[in-house]
Amino acid sequence: xxxxxxxxxxxxxxxxxxxxxxxxxxxxxxxxxxxxxxxxxxxxxxxxxxxxxxxxxxxxxxxxxxxxxxxxxxxxxxxxxxxxxxxxxx
Length: 90
Hints:
Elements (H helix, E strand, L loop, with lengths): L1 H49 L5 E3 L5 E4 L1 H7 L3 H4 L8
Antiparallel strand pairs: 1-2
């Protein structure tokens, strides 16, 4: 009986260790992905702010979620008043 319990305990311990290692790897991959996404977004923002035209971004429902600073320069409108509004498509 003791041998069976020891075998079961060993198997459960190995499985728990494997699961912990796998979780650590997945967490590390998630952290790397999040950092890459942040870097990509920063590059996009830098490009958008350097553009001569204004750039906007909408969400799935067509609401404005980003307007470049050039929008205010060209139109004189405050960006904060436009964010969240439905965009107009032609």
